[in-house]
Every structure is written in structure tokens, then in C-alpha cells.
Write a structure and sequence with these properties.
The protein is of the alpha+beta class and 129 residues long. It has 2 helices and 4 strands; from the N terminus they run αββαββ. Helix 1 packs antiparallel against helix 2.
Length: 129
């Protein structure tokens, strides 16, 4: 099964905030932009994927993958995310124009943003709650 179109998830019950805020803000902002969302069947479009990772210590990493390189639109989106969601620890992005879903290109970070997050695990190697 191949999903075509944008899967709208207003509230994810699997991840804590700011996951919902990040996803909903990026969807709303990018929906007003040209170019728009990536079409997996045509292998064209701009905003391809958004990955949000949170840690037990409250740190948050956001990785935005673009399907095409549109520097001004990317700069505008990344600046808006950084301004609207200042609690993001690490904001990363990449342009991946290949037909598959693996991220192969270099991942970039914004100036003065971290390139990683740190979580805490217990003695058994599980996240501390």
C-alpha cells in the first residue's frame, strides 16, 4: 500500500509535547507555501518528511526532509519553526531528492542549534521515566 497525500494527525498519543505542536505548526505553515508537500507517486514536491524525537530529559530534535531544494522557502520555514517553537533543542534539515525514503544526503543544522539530543537510561538500558 502506498500512501498518497498528507496523513493528518492532530494529536499523537505516543509522544509528549512538543511533538504535536511541531507537527501541526509545520503542516499549517507549509500548507500555505509554494512549493507544497511531496507526492510519493510522482516523486516531486517540497516538504517530504518531518521526524520528531524527544528524550526523557525533555530535549527535542526535529529533522525536516525536503524533496527539492528551494533555499528561500526552506529558510523561511526553518526560521518560523525556530521562532515559534524555541524549546526545540536541535533543528536539522536535509534535501533528499532520491525516489526512495532513505536519508542519504548530508544533514544540516541551523547556526547556534545543537546537532544532537541527550537522553538518560536506567541500568537495564531502558529510558528513565
Amino acid at each position: 500500500m502506498v500512501l498518497t497525500g498528507l496523513l493528518r494527525v492532530d494529536e499523537c498519543h505516543l509522544q509528549p509535547e512538543p511533538s504535536n505542536s511541531v507537527r501541526n505548526f509545520i503542516r499549517a505553515f507549509a500548507g500555505k507555501q509554494e512549493p507544497n508537500f511531496y507526492d510519493i507517486r510522482k516523486h516531486e514536491g517540497w516538504l517530504r518528511t518531518v521526524m520528531v524525537r524527544t528524550t526523557t530529559t525533555g530535549e527535542c530534535m526535529v529533522l525536516i526532509a525536503f524533496g527539492q531544494d528551494h533555499p528561500e522557502a526552506q529558510k523561511e520555514l526553518l526560521g518560523a519553526v525556530k521562532a515559534e517553537l524555541p524549546n526545540i533543542t536541535s533543528l536539522l534539515w536535509t534535501v533528499e531528492s532520491k525516489d526512495d525514503t532513505r536519508l542519504r544526503c548530508g544533514i544540516k543544522t541551523l547556526p547556534r542549534q545543537g546537532d544532537h539530543i541527550v537522553g538518560v537510561v536506567n541500568d537495564e538500558g531502558h529510558p528513565r521515566t
